[in-house]
Amino acid sequence: ERLAGRLGTGDCVGLVGELGAGKTVLIRGIARGLGVADERVICSPTYVLVHEYAGRVPVFHVDLYRLTAAAEAGDLGLDEMLATGVVLIEWADRAEGVLPRPRWRMDIVPVGPTARAFALRRVG
């Protein structure tokens, strides 16, 4: 939720971590901080690729897990999403070369059964 306070229209956060690392859980917290009223509706858009949620700005939740080539991410309309809201991307490492710059990158590393280490950095 604290990260959400630094985000606004045009911001992109790419999340990187292994399966089960907590990417979707983190996105729920960010979305709550961006004013999404019911974070329980937030689930990973693995098969549809993008979900949009209403908050103080639109929140676009993108999942690149099923992409077979990085170039496919360019067909999702990320520029249009960024023009109106915040874009949160799971599996961002699958399309590093085509993602918008500048953006935030959050690496999530499990350090125990229920503990995670987070590293946030600016890219571009």
Automatic annotation (TrEMBL):
SUPFAM superfamilies given in the database record: P-loop containing nucleoside triphosphate hydrolases
UniProtKB keywords: ATP-binding, Cytoplasm, Magnesium, Metal-binding, Nucleotide-binding, tRNA processing
Listed Pfam families: TsaE
Endpoints of the signal sequence: none
Family matches, as InterPro entries: P-loop_NTPase (IPR027417), T6A_TsaE (IPR003442)
Localisation per UniProt entry: Cytoplasm
Protein name per its UniProtKB record: tRNA threonylcarbamoyladenosine biosynthesis protein TsaE
Protein species of origin: marine sediment metagenome
